[in-house]
């Protein structure tokens, strides 16, 4: 999603210098890429031998300033996360480049009277003293509590849950979908309400942070009681930049509260790296070898700051982020990555009517391997609901009422052949209850997914929910200026709202219910939450109707 920012000027010098060390063809070999990054961007090899050990008694300030988090729940396992940062707004986070032992425990109760598992993890300076624990041996389908300890310091207690067993009887689940949280556009009030909401899982659909500069007053937050350091007041390009930006975002108390209460499943979109990039193609058309160095830094910092498994650890500029999770027999979640492998946007990425360039059948949104993985997963799925968390609008979204209306070249409308292959895969696999979850647009939408978007009477193959932004776009409005145009141009569009917030979805054996929860403002804190609208779709009878 494009926001017009002020761009930084001269912070690409070191990336340009580093890119000259290796040509693009050589760079794309992972071994060469890792070596180049280690030399050029201070990304040393992983391992305990890479740093001396820090005596935890030397940590004199509270180190858990960025909170705790959990994610990617399996029936017997969940990821537990924290990062040691006594001084989060410093490049070194207030710690020397030495490894630290961090104790962890996960219990069946909030008092930790019945501990289910415990151990010690190493916070490596190579990973900015982040900790990713894959807690194993847990019971399926139950709530747990967890915490970390280093030296005499104890973290807050987090709450998480495991996924139900594959053969369990799961009557229902409730998830929350969130996206797009520009710090400089407003407060994360939606997360404070989400922390108090009763959901089983949070799906973050991209734009967890923005690369744009954040001034001393925090942009639209307009701080009067603090001044942010100048090191945030430029666009992120280097590993240090991205790491510091996560420190800023994750120091937000509302975001920390939501992470501490619910397990998250995350996937990135563009702004975690750079606006509207496509594969190895930068928005600014810098050489690919230079941009891939930046992408490697962004992906590294993303993994360090999210509750992700070791399988998602990037190697150079490549990261295996698409993955599949199950919620018993009720739901299968196929989490997509629509940035890393896509073809470059057609027509320069501008809004454009469909044409030969965008309709080229070789164009891909996901890359061939991920596309086949998705189709193969559907062919073997036994879940009642097949849910696809992903980044950009899947349904056709006409933007005007002209005879040849423009569409977004950054969304699936710019990749119609790829969308056609996905829809044909839905039919071939006999998927009866498809739901796509989307972010990016800073608006809430409910779409019916049509077999043929040119024919409003064609078969409905599933539904799509677009979660509005947490803060991006500032306060928003109930009916944007294009509301009448969009609703008239898109008969499969059932709901459109321009306010901030999040969406909850309850899945059960009879159907699904979506609740669009919105805030009247985000540029000042404390906004109340209301449910703007609710919609249902029935099992075996696709299409949204008002609840």
From TrEMBL:
It comes from the Bacteria. Residues 66-162 form the Phospholipase D N-terminal domain. Residues 344-363 are annotated as: Disordered. Residues 175-516 form the PhoD-like phosphatase metallophosphatase domain. CDD domains: MPP_PhoD. Pfam families: PhoD, PhoD_N. This is Alkaline phosphatase. It comes from Streptomyces aquilus.
């Amino acid at each position: 999603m494009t926001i017009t920012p002020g761009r930084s000027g001269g912070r690409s010098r070191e990336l340009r210098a580093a890119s000259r060390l290796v040509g693009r063809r050589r760079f794309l070999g992972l071994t060469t890429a890792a070596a180049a990054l280690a030399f050029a961007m201070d990304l040393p090899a992983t391992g305990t031998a890479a740093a001396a050990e820090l005596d935890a008694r030397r940590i004199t300030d509270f180190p858990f300033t960025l909170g705790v988090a959990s994610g990617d729940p399996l029936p017997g396992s969940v990821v537990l996360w924290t990062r040691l940062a006594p001084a989060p707004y410093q490049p070194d986070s207030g710690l020397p480049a030495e490894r630290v032992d961090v104790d962890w425990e996960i219990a069946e109760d909030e008092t930790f009277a019945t501990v289910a598992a415990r151990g010690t993890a190493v916070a490596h300076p190579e990973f900015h003293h982040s900790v990713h624990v894959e807690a194993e041996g847990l019971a399926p389908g139950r709530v747990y509590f967890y915490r970390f300890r280093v030296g005499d310091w104890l973290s807050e207690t987090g709450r998480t849950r495991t996924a139900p067993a594959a053969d369990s009887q799961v009557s229902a689940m409730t998830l929350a979908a969130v996206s797009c949280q520009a710090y400089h556009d407003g407060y994360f009030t939606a997360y404070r309400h989400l922390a108090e909401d009763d959901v089983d899982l949070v799906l973050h659909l991209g734009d967890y942070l923005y690369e744009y500069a954040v001034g001393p007053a925090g942009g639209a937050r307009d701080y009067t009681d603090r001044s942010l350091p100048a090191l945030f007041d430029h666009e992120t390009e280097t590993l240090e930049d991205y790491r510091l930006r996560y420190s800023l975002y994750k120091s937000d108390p509302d975001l920390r509260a939501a992470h501490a209460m619910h397990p998250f499943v995350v996937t990135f979109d563009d702004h975690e790296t750079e606006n509207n990039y496509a594969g190895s193609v930068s928005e600014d058309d810098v050489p690919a070898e230079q941009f891939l160095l930046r992408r490697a830094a962004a992906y590294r910092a993303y993994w360090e700051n999210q509750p992700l498994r070791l399988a998602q650890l990037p190697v150079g500029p490549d990261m295996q982020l698409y993955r599949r999770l199950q919620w018993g027999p009720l739901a299968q979640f196929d989490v997509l990555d629509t940035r890393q492998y896509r073809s470059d946007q057609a027509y320069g990425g501008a809004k454009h009517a469909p044409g030969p360039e965008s309709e080229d059948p070789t164009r891909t949104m996901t890359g061939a391997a991920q596309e086949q993985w998705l189709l193969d997963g559907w062919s073997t799925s036994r879940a009642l609901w097949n849910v696809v968390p992903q980044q950009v609008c899947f349904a056709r979204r006409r933007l005007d009422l002209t005879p040849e209306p423009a569409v977004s070249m950054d969304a699936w409308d710019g990749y119609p052949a790829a969308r056609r292959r996905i829809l044909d895969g839905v039919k071939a696999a006999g998927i009866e209850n498809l739901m796509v979850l989307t972010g990016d647009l800073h608006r809430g939408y409910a779409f019916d997914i049509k077999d043929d978007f040119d024919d409003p009477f064609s078969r409905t193959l599933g539904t799509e929910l677009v979660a509005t932004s947490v803060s991006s776009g500032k306060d928003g409005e109930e009916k944007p200026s294009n509301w009448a145009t969009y609703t008239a141009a898109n008969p499969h569009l059932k709901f459109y709202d321009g306010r901030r917030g999040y969406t909850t979805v309850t899945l059960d054996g009879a159907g699904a219910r979506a609740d669009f929860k919105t805030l009247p403002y985000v540029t000042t804190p404390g906004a109340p939450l209301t449910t703007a609208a609710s919609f249902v779709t029935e099992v075996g009878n696709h299409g949204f109707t008002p609840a």
